[in-house]
Design goal:
The structure holds two protein chains of two kinds. Chain A is mostly helical. Chain A is 54% helix and 7% strand. Chain A has a three-stranded mixed β-sheet. In chain A, helix 5 runs antiparallel to helix 6. The longest helix of chain A has 16 residues. Chain B is α/β, with parallel strands linked by helices. Chain B has a domain of 135 residues: Rossmann fold. Helices cover 24% and strands 23% of the residues of chain B. Chain B has eleven helices and 22 strands. In chain B, the strands form five sheets. Chain B has a 13-stranded parallel β-sheet with strand order 1-2-3-5-7-10-13-15-16-18-19-21-22. The chains are: A mainly alpha, B alpha/beta.
């Protein structure tokens, strides 16, 4: 309460956040505002020197999220083509993470309401699934096939309209 | 330090349903359905996605003929729409088809209309129809009251033609449609009118060569019109128009006289932001004929080479008719110069608010940039402003690679083509 000033538009203000495992992070207010949850906390004067506690976000993903928000807040509106491209490159590199971190980001971005990051993580996950056979996807994500062989056959048969394939697509597309 | 990926812990399946559905919404429908065999957790998730991305290309080449592939695609989409849960509603339906030479376009069109109608019954707010870039034929949309939905807000169509009465149906049947984007389409209609549209893009589409199409969209604030073939559509009621990007590349049959040009530009006269490339054939304007209406709201103007004849005639006329102008951009390329020519009795103009002139030189190759500070054209532009007493005006000259920059500032914002393949 005490630390939050009245001039809410002042983006030089640093906002502190605390991860579930007790680590402290700082980012500019403009960056914090990219998170719906943080923005509401700031608006409600809950951003104080002790930091906003984020009970379900661990330090590792939080560090990434602070990084993401800081970068995106610095370049928000009125991007030139070059800046937009650079931001795109940043995003592409940013989301090159192992699946563990990807899950953490999916959950944390969703929880914190960081829309751009949430979309980025969702898209990345979908990209990992794309173009793979069910067996390959089970392997990538560690999904355990809990069907009996009979059940699996039945499901394939039930949905044969989505499965039947004779040879790999080739002509165009 | 990075922990090895632990096999056996399936955190993806542990995500909440909503998050998994969002991930699946980015997949093409066929792949989304196929997740049903992963495990029990995944068995029925595909049934309740709120996006459907149906792509012919996922079936392409599976049989020996297009007809065979198309039959499988049809069976797939029909089953998908039939077997998915009726709730939740669909928020976006995306369809991509492919019609090779000789394909039965009528049948494919009937399917597409059926599916779109179904998606609209499922309350889809966004419908996009795309075609593979190698497609040969347009899908014909409309007919039988397909387009009737109070939920539809955005319609994006590529490579389609329109059944009789399509736009009328859209106007009366879709009272909340705000965004209409048409690409590579055949628009042989008399009239497009809508009270609800706010954002209209018509790109690389063909209008009739025999008659004028009129567009009456009094609530459109943003208009993008790029390379229409045939008669350029006449803009009738455009009183809300705030930004317009108009790039005409071909000779325009129905803009051949000062009166026609004046009438046409009148449709744009409410804009605040205007990017206009307008290479009409050489037209001699006689006796100070008025071809340029007053742009009383215009603050940001981008013009192409067409307005830069040796006397900067058309540019001067534009400046004389844009009293509130704050920023002028001239995009100059090496293309053919066609222009409006004329004599002005009075060459001065008053643009008290004009602060910046950007001269953007479009290069196909940045290696070939010459020193253009002394270019005669640039000097003429500088002189034009000096002669009108605007000594403190800031004139910037930049070079940009053609492919990146031809799309001007306003234009770039609007022009996000949803084409899938580059």
């Amino acid at each position: 309460m005490a630390a939050a000033t009245d001039d809410a538009g002042d983006s030089n203000e640093m906002i502190r956040v605390v991860s579930s495992d007790g680590e402290h992070f700082e980012m500019p207010e403009a960056a914090a505002n990219l998170s719906l949850v943080l923005r509401h906390m700031i608006e409600d004067d809950c951003a104080d020197a002790a930091g906003i506690p984020l009970a379900v976000v661990a330090a590792k993903p939080l560090a990434k999220i602070v990084d993401y928000c800081t970068k995106h807040a610095a370049k928000s509106s009125g991007l030139t083509i070059e800046e937009a491209e650079e931001l795109k490159r940043f995003d592409a590199e940013f989301i090159e993470v192992d699946t563990d971190m990807l899950y953490d980001l999916l959950v944390a971005a969703d929880f914190m309401g960081v829309e751009g990051l949430s979309k980025l993580a969702v898209q990345r996950t979908a990209d990992l699934i794309k173009g793979k056979t069910p067996e390959q996807n089970r392997e990538t994500f560690g999904i355990v096939n809990d069907f009996t062989p009979e059940e699996e056959e039945e499901i394939c048969k039930e949905n044969e309209w989505a499965f039947q394939i004779t040879k790999p697509p080739s002509r165009l597309c | 330090m990075e922990p090895e990926q632990e096999t056996g812990t399936d955190r993806l399946s542990d995500l909440p349903d909503d998050l998994i559905r969002r991930i699946m919404s980015f997949l093409h429908a066929r792949q989304a359905v196929r997740t049903c065999v992963l495990s029990r957790r995944w068995r029925d998730l595909w049934r309740s996605l709120n996006r459907i991305n149906a792509d012919f290309c996922d079936f392409n080449g599976e049989t020996d003929t297009w007809e065979g592939d198309q039959a499988r695609f049809r069976k797939f989409v029909n089953n998908l729409l039939l077997l998915r849960d009726p709730v939740p509603v669909v928020d976006k339906f995306w369809l991509r088809s492919y019609l090779p030479l000789g394909a039965n376009a009528e049948e494919a069109s009937a399917d597409a209309n059926l599916w779109i109608g179904h998606a609209l019954q499922l309350q889809a707010s966004v419908v996009e129809v795309d075609q593979d870039i190698q497609t040969w034929n347009a899908l014909e949309l409309g007919g039988h009251a397909v387009f009737a939905s109070q939920y539809l807000t955005r319609l994006v169509l590529s490579a389609v033609s329109f059944a009789e009465g399509f736009f009328k149906q859209l106007e009366t049947g879709c009272p909340n449609l705000e965004h209409l984007y048409l690409y590579d389409s055949i628009i042989h209609v008399d009239n497009i009118s809508s009270q609800t549209l706010k954002d209209l893009i018509i790109d690389s589409s063909e209008f009739s060569y025999d008659y004028d199409t009129s567009i009456s969209t009094p609530n459109v604030t943003s208009l993008t019109l790029i390379d229409p073939a045939g008669h350029v559509p006449l803009l009738m009621d455009m009183e809300s128009l705030a930004s317009a990007s108009v790039y005409l590349q071909f000779d325009v049959a129905n803009l051949d006289t000062a009166i026609n040009i004046n009438q046409w530009l009148m449709g744009l006269s409410a804009v605040r932001y205007l990017a206009l490339d307008f290479p009409v054939g050489v037209i001699e304007i006689e006796d100070n004929m008025q071809w340029c209406p007053e742009f009383n709201n215009l603050v940001n103007l981008t013009l192409g080479r067409w307005c830069l004849d040796s006397k900067l005639y058309a540019l001067t006329v534009f400046l004389q008719n844009s009293p509130k102008l704050e920023k002028l951009t001239l995009e100059i390329d090496e293309g053919d110069i066609q222009k409006i020519k004329g004599e002005l009795k009075e060459t001065s103009f008053t643009c008290d608010n004009l602060k910046i002139v950007e001269v953007t030189w479009l290069e196909e190759d940045l290696q070939e940039v010459m020193c253009l500070e002394d270019d005669p054209l640039v000097n003429r532009v500088k002189k034009l402003f000096l002669d009108s007493g605007m000594t403190s005006l800031q004139i910037n000259i930049t070079h940009l690679v053609y492919s990146l920059s031809y799309e001007s500032e306003v234009f770039r914002e609007d022009h996000k083509r949803p084409r899938i393949r580059p």
